[in-house]
Amino acid sequence: MSDILKLTAADLAAKLRSGEVSSVEATQAHLDRIAAVDGDVHAFLHVSDHAVDVAADIDRRRAAGEELGELAGVPLAIKDVLVTTDMPSTSGSKILEGYMSPYDATVVARARAAGLVPLGKTNMDEFAMGSSTEHSAYGPTHNPWDLDRIPGGSGGGSAAAVAAFEAPLALGSDTGGSIRQPAHVTGTVGMKPTYGGVSRYGAIALASSLDQVGPVSRTVLDSALLHDVIGGHDPHDATSLTDAWPSFAAAAREGATGDVLKGLKVGVIRELDDTGFQKGVSESFRASLAAMEAAGAEIVEVSAPHFDYGVAAYYLILPAEASSNLAKFDSVRFGMRVNVPGGTVEDVMAATRDAGFGDEVKRRVILGTYALSAGYYDAYYGSAQKVRTLIQRDFDEAFAQVDVIATPSAPTTAFRLGEKLNDPIQMYLNDVTTIPVNLAGVPGISIPSGLAAEDGLPVGIQFVAPAREDARLYRVGAALEALLVDSWGGPILDRAPILGGAR
Amino acid sequence: MSEITPDLVRHLGVLARIQLSDEEVERLTGQLDAIVDNIAKVSEVATPEVAATSHPIPLSNVFRSDVPGDMLSLDEVLQNAPDAADGRFRVTAILGEEQ
């Protein structure tokens, strides 16, 4: 494997700036890596045929003395939920096979403007509905740590791409854990920003009041650097916040010194009973807490009595919003159209949606249609929205006592492909610790906390901060990351099996 | 137990414009029944005095100037249409014979 591939995005950017490495070299190295291992991993649905040209343009502009962004020339993988003008955008669905967007998502446009080099589009559960990428219409992604296991979802492609060194950075989207849970099972870093902190314009909507776009990477600093590029107000997204954000990269660099841990109050949720969690996940979580405590942090038990209702509320709100958002796939304006001889437009629409949507999408659209129907609306959707208020209050009360909350990022390490595919309720419970964060709109980050003793697979720890305190997560995440990487003697991915060859 | 029946699922399929096969209706009936049993507990804590939250970060009156923004050309609008003619989307008959 080329040395370029092992570099963090921050280190690669430094070498690009100094001229030690060109963007063409870096881009070609990643394309070669994709060619070598993606047959096994299947992180990508589409690989750009002109990434080297884009990289050459960056090299030319750098040589001409142009002032470029910090990440200029660094390759980037893009989750297929984000629309792009130069590559198909399918959101993992057959109904959008081959769809070419007439515009770029704002985050993609900002990444291009900053000089990042799009490598391709990454696999995902269809319309981001899932926790394993097994609901992709184009076949699952395989976890680079064990190809028989799930890479998490919905953004399993983006997480697997960075874990397999096919890209140093990726974009993801997180509606109930789709950035953080894949990070947990692949030994990578994923950040869900404050709701409204990053534009959703051009992110094919799943549940509009929960969706948030965010960075995926191998280190906390790399996520922060990408967040600095994509974040900030966008007039194209009416829910976009107008706040002036601090530099997240500066926060991560400051955090890495470890000073932030001295006197930091870390909340642990009393009601989040981890007795049902995999033993190695709980052990890794507690070991991380102990490491933080030894570095001067104070662990404080906080109460969040309504977290128990989070998954239930989520599986009412998400299907309700998704059933509305997916009404646009109507066989009229874009996407698939099934030929029904003599059929009316409604017949064609119904046949197209039957043929074009997968099982999980149908399940959630039907569930959402039920939750919104007359007679049930108050009992289901209305009640779920009240649970959101209660969970927000739980967070408010907890954050009156602590600076951040810590949880395991998910209850288990990567499970086997197929293991939970026919049991939707078990699949839904994967996101028990990440869902409340989306319901409340607060930011959350998952960073590697170690390997589970019983199976040697990665485990993540999630930190949650109050709304708009994304920088705090980069500070705390970078501090713990520095402690743990030091104790391991190197990044956790050094211990992953070697792909495309002998273990 | 919830009240998910095959007839209700078939009706929801009509509302959602998804033509479900009998096999799909049967499978979805069982799955939705189990899911609804698991999510109905939201009503336990959703008491009348709790206000509903639709968006996590409240914003109000998000306006923009009343001037044309970024527009797609007609060609761009129609570029992904399954069928188009004369600058419009073309569809099959709106009304069936019985209507």
UniProtKB/TrEMBL annotation, chain B:
Pfam families, A to Z: GatC
GO BP: any one term: translation
Family designation: Belongs to the GatC family.
Molecular functions (GO terms): asparaginyl-tRNA synthase (glutamine-hydrolyzing) activity; ATP binding; glutaminyl-tRNA synthase (glutamine-hydrolyzing) activity; transferase activity
Chain's gene name: gatC
Keywords: ATP-binding, Ligase, Nucleotide-binding, Protein biosynthesis, Transferase
Enzyme class: ligase
EC number: 6.3.5.-
Protein name: Aspartyl/glutamyl-tRNA(Asn/Gln) amidotransferase subunit C
Quaternary state and interactors: Heterotrimer of A, B and C subunits.
Keyword Transit peptide: no
Role: Allows the formation of correctly charged Asn-tRNA(Asn) or Gln-tRNA(Gln) through the transamidation of misacylated Asp-tRNA(Asn) or Glu-tRNA(Gln) in organisms which lack either or both of asparaginyl-tRNA or glutaminyl-tRNA synthetases. The reaction takes place in the presence of glutamine and ATP through an activated phospho-Asp-tRNA(Asn) or phospho-Glu-tRNA(Gln).
Reaction it catalyzes: L-glutamyl-tRNA(Gln) + L-glutamine + ATP + H2O = L-glutaminyl-tRNA(Gln) + L-glutamate + ADP + phosphate + H(+); L-aspartyl-tRNA(Asn) + L-glutamine + ATP + H2O = L-asparaginyl-tRNA(Asn) + L-glutamate + ADP + phosphate + 2 H(+)
